[in-house]
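hi!! sorry for the late reply, been swamped w classes. u asked for the two structures so here they r. pasted raw, havent cleaned anything up. first the sequence of the first protein and right below it the C-alpha cells
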Amino acid sequence: MEDTATFERTDPAAPLRQVGALIRGARQGRKLTQAQLAERVGTSQSAINRIEQGSQNISIDLLSRISTALESEIVSFGEQKKNSHLRVQGGRQLHGTIAVRSSKNASVALLCAALMNRGRTTLHGIARIVEVDRIIDVLRSLGVSVVWSPDGQDVEIHVPADLSLESIDEDAGRRTRSVLMFLGPLLGRYDTFALPYAGGCDLGTRTVEPHLIALRPFGLSIEATAGWYQATVAPDVPEELSVVLTERGDTVTENAIMAAAVRDGVTTIRNASPNYMVQDLCFYLELLGITIEGIGSTTLRITGRSVINEDVDYWPSEDPVEAMSLLTAGIVTDSEITVTRVPIEFMEIELATLGEMGLRYTRSPEYAAANGRTRLVDVTVHPSKLHAPIDKIHPMPFPGLNIDNLPFFAVIAACAEGDTLIHDWVYEGRAIHLTDLTRLGANVRLRDPHRIDVSGPTHWSGAEVSCPPALRPAVVILLAMLAAKGTSVLRNVDIIARGYEQLQERLITLGASIETFRD
C-alpha cells in the first residue's frame, strides 16, 4: 500500500524516519497543519514536528490516534492493511468507580448549531470521538475555525461571514449521518446550497423524508441528484409558523429547532422530541438569545433571530447511553461498580426496568451538571439474581426507554432467568446483529427484523466474533465477552470509536482484561 510502511530491520532509525515521512504526507494530504493534527490527537505541535522528522519514538497508542485522525493506516507490519481487534479475557468481576462523559449526540448537534453564531462558541468537555472529528472536518472545509484547547477537552469555534460551501468535505460528509443537521442552520443563511448524501450505521433504511417534512414549512425543498442533496429555500415564509413533526425523532426535532432559531419570527413545533440532546441544543440556543418555551415537552415555541453574534461557553451534559453501557458492564459481570455523573432524568425508565428484573442498585442524591441544568446522580450496581420482566422490553420516545439503550437489555436479559421479548420497532435491521450473542453461548432467537426472544441464564463462553456494522450491538458483544469465561476476540472494532471515547481503556480501569491487537 502506498500509505503504509513496512519496517526495515537494517537501520534502527529507519522505521522512525519512514513513519515520520508517511505521517507528514498524510497530514499534508488532509491539508492539516502540525498544530491541527496535534489538537486532534492530544499532543503538542513540537511533538508532531519531532515525529515527522523521525527524531522521536512513538507509542502504538499515539500512532493509532494519529492514524485515526488522518484516516490513514500509517504502519503495517506485513503486506496487508492491519485491522484493529480486541482480545478479551472474560469471566472476571469488575470493581471501582467510573465517570460518564459528555454526550456524543449533543456534541454533534452543538457543533452544527454553532454555524448560526457569528460570535465565539466554546464547547467544554466535548466528546473526542470519530463522529465529532468528521463533523469538525466538514466545518473546517467550509472555512469555520475549529480549535481544540491544549488539553484536548474544549473546542473553540469561529464562523466566518461567508462559508465556502463549494469546498465542503464530501468524503467526511458521506460517512456521517449527522451532516443532515446542517440543513436547519444553512437554510437561514442561503437560498441554495448542497450537502452530500448522509451515511452512518448499517441499521436498515433510515429515510431523510422526516427531515424534509419538518423543514418544508421553512421554505426548504430538496432534489437528490448524483449523490447530493440540492437544497433550495423559498423566501416567502410567514412570520408566525406552525410545524407538526410526523416523526418524533431527535435529529429531526433538532433540525426544526435550528431552522426556527435562525429566522426572525415565532415558530411552534409540535410532536417534538424532548430527549437529552434536544434539551442540550435548546440550552445552548438560549445563551445565543433565542427564546424557547416548553423545553422538555413535546411542544416548543421558539422566537428566533436572523442575526446572532454572541460569545458563549457551554458544557454538554453527560451521555445516558454511555451511562447504560457502563452500568451494563457491571451487571453482566455480576460486579459492584459505581458509575458517576449519570443523567438521571434520561435513565429513570431503564433503572426502573432493571429494578423489576431484580437488579439491586443504590443512587446518590441529585446534583447539577456543569451546564447547570441537567440532573446527575451516582449509581452503584450490586451483584444480583436477575429474572425476566413480565412484559416485553421496547423503546419509546422520551421519557420512555431510550432506543439506543435497548440493545443493552439483550445481553442483560441473557443473564436473567426466564424468557424476554425485546422489540426494536424503530430499526428493521438492528435486531439481527444481537443474534451474534449466540456465538458466546446465549440463547437468542430472531422472530422477525424487529423482535428477538432471549432465554437465560446464559453460561457464557469465549468465542471469536466479527464486530457488527452497528455501534450499539458492537458494544453489546464486547460487554458479553467481559462475562464470557476464557478468551474472546472481537474483530474489526473501529466502529466503536464512532460513539465511544477510549471505551476499552476505561473498562480496563475497572479491572477488565482487554488487549488491542492488529493482524
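now the second protein. again sequence first, C-alpha cells right under
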Amino acid sequence: MAQAADSVQKNSVNAKTTAAVGGKATAARAGGTTVNTGINAAGGAEQLRVTGARSYGGLIRNETAAKSVSTISHDYIAKQAPASNALALVAMSPGANVSMGDPFGVSDESDINVRGLNQQEIGFTFEGAPMNDPDDYTPNSSEWVDSENMDNVQLQQGAPSIETPTTTSSGGTMAVRMRGPKHTRGGEFDVSYGTHQMNRQFIRYDSGDIANTGLRAFASFSDLTSRAWRGPGRNNRWHVDYKLVKEWGDGNYISLSGSYNNEHTAWYSTPTLSDWNKYGLKNNPDDMQGKYSFGEANYYKSYATSWTDYFLSAPSHFKLARNLTLDVTPYYYHGSGNYPFGVTTISTTGPYYNGTAANNSPLAGNNYSEDGQIAAIQNWIGVEGYTGFNSTLHYKVANHDLVFGYWYGYTDMHVDEPLSGLDASGNSTGYLRQQDGTTLNEWSYHTITQTNALYIGDTMHFLNRKLTLDVGFKEVMAARNGTLNQPGPQYNANYYSAQPLPRMSVSYKFTPNIMVFGNVTTSYRLPLGSAFYNQYDSPWDGGLYQTANKKLHDEYSVSEEVGARYHDKWITASLTLFNYNFSHHQINEYIGNVPYYQDAGSMTTRGFDGELALHPWHHITPYGSVEYLYARQDSNITMDGVTYQTAGKMATSAPRWMAAAGLQYDDGRFFGSVSLKYVDKEYGTFMNDEQISGHKQVDMMIGARAPDIGFLKAPSLRLNVINLADHHYLSGVYNTGPVAGTAQYYTAPNFACLGTFSTGF
C-alpha cells in the first residue's frame, strides 16, 4: 500500500513542498486533488485517497463522531505565525476562550477556557500521550512541538473519547498530532523576523522511504529569540522534533515520536482590575522592573523561567487477524526547571525554620545584606516525569465494532522551593544554606500517582449503517501517595479513588449530507496535587500558611449533547446544544503565589455551539463560529473560614457570548486571511462584583508563493499580524478571587507582526 501511494503521490503532486508554501499550493495546482499517506491524525493507518476533496480553510471538516469536535488541519496551521502553540491555533473554534500572555505563543503564560471550564479541567494529549502537568494540570503546550510539524489540533469540547488516557477531562479534551515523515526525500526551511526583536529559524529534513525497509523518518530543529513584549526580559527557545515510522504488511506500523525543548522565557505581571484601570499598559507598579534595588520584589530576573524537557511516544498499530487489530502507545516524559516567583527578604540572625523545626545557627557563607536583611529569589524547582502505555483492542463482528482497552500511567512529581541569595547588583549568589548544609526551603514535597483504567465499548450499526449506537464503560482507579519533606506533624499524604465512567451516544444519517447525534458522557478530575500538603511559613516561622485539605473529592461531571451536522460540496455546518452538571467542582487558585485547591460544590453549565464554513468561491473561504453559555454556581463557597453566598451566581471566566468570523483567500500564488474574535464580559470573582469588559481582536495574514527557483521548491513570503487594531484589554482571568480587588487578569499582547520566508528543498 505504501509503495502504491508513493507512486501516485510522485505522479500527482509534489508533496514535499506542501508545508513550506502555506498549506494549499499542492491542492490548488492539482485542482483540489489530495493524497494522504502514512499515519493519520487518529494514530491509525491512513488510507490512500485521491479525490476531489473540498477544503474549508483548515478550520472545519466534516466530522462523523456523535459529539462536538473541531479539528484544525495543517492547511490552517501552516499559515499562522511560526511558534504558535496549540492553544492559539484553536482560538477561532466554538467554545474556545483563549488568553495569550505572549503575541507569538512563545510563553506558557497562556490559558484556554472551553465552555467556561479552565485548562486544568481539560485533558491534553500529544501523539496519544497525556500532557497535563502532573501537579497543577496546566498543559504547557508551547513546549510540545513546532507548529511546522503539527498535523492537526483537535478540540473535543464535551465528551472525551473512551480511549483518552487522562484523569483531567471533565471539561473536554485537546489532542495534537505530529506530521509523519514523508515518502519522498527532501526538506523544509523557514526564517522569521518581527516586532519585539522576534527572530526564529526552522529546518526539517525528511529521509523519504529508506530502500525497501518500510522505514522513513524526519528530524527538525528550531531556534527562537525575542524580547519581552512588555517590560524587561528576553525569550530563548531551542527545540528538536523527530519521528520514525516502520510500515509493513496490511496496515501494520510502529512509530517513534520525540521532542526536546529548552527554553528561558520572560514573565509578565497579571494586574488587578483597579490597577489596570489606573495604569493600563504603562507604569503599573506591579510590572516587572528592569533595575534592581535591594529587596525589589518584581525584579524581572527573579521571575524569568527556565525549563528543559524531552518526550517520547510510540503509537503503533498491528493487524492481528482479518477483523482484529491492536493499537498500543507507550510514552515517556521528563521535565525539570525553575519557575521563580519574586524577591523576598530574610533576617541575617534567624531563627530559621524548616517546616516546624527551628534552627538558631547563622547562615553559612558570606551573604550580602543591608540593615540586617538578606534579599533572595523565591524559586520553584520542579522535577517531573510520567510514563505509561495505552492499549486498545478492536474487534469487528457482524454489525458490532468492539473495543477493549487498558491504560496504565505513572507520574512522579518532586517540588522544592529553595531561596537564592542576591548580591548588591541583583545577581544570584547560590542557595542560602545553614551551617549544616541544609538549604533554606519554603516547601518540599514528592508525589507519585499511579492510574489504572479499563474500558470496553461497542459501536453498533443498524439500518444499512445509517443508525449508529455506541455504548461504553470505563473504570479509572487512581492511587496518589506523597511525602512532605519537611519536619512537622504531616509526613505521608495518600489518596485513592475509583470512578465508574459510563457513556452512550447515538447518531443517525438522514441522508449522506445530514446527520443528527446525541450523547451522555461522564468524566472526572483528580484534585490538585499540591492540595495534599501542609505549607509552613518557612523559613520565617513554623506557622501554617496552608493546611492540607482533608476532604478531597474527585470532580465529577455528567454532560449531555444534542447536535446536527450538514455538509455538501459548498457548505459544512454544525450546531450543538450542551448541558453539564458538576459535583465537587474544583477551583484552583493562587494565594501569595501558592496554588490553592477549592471544592466549589455543584455547578451547572448549558448553552449551544455553532460553526459554519463555505467551500472556496473565487478562492475566498468564509468561516464563522458562535457560542452562547450559561454557567451557574449552585453552591456557596467557603474560603479561609469565610462562606460566600455564591449559589446562583454566574461562574467566573464564562462569557455569555463568543463569536468568531474569518475570510481566507488562496489562489495558489497569493494567499491571505483576516479574522475577528469577540468575547463577552467575564466575571473575575465568585461574588460577581467585578468583571472585565468584552473585547474583540482582529488578526491578519498576507502571503505569496513563487515558482521553484533552483533547488528551492515553492518559496513563499508571508506576514502575520496579531492584534491589527492594537486594542488594549484584559483578555481573561488569571486568578479568581472571592470579592472585588482579589482577582488578577491576563493582559492581551499589543500589536505585533512577523514576516516569514519559507521554502522546500
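hope this helps!! also noticed smth abt the second:
Residues 69-760 form a domain with the Maltoporin; Chain A fold (CATH 2.40.170.20).
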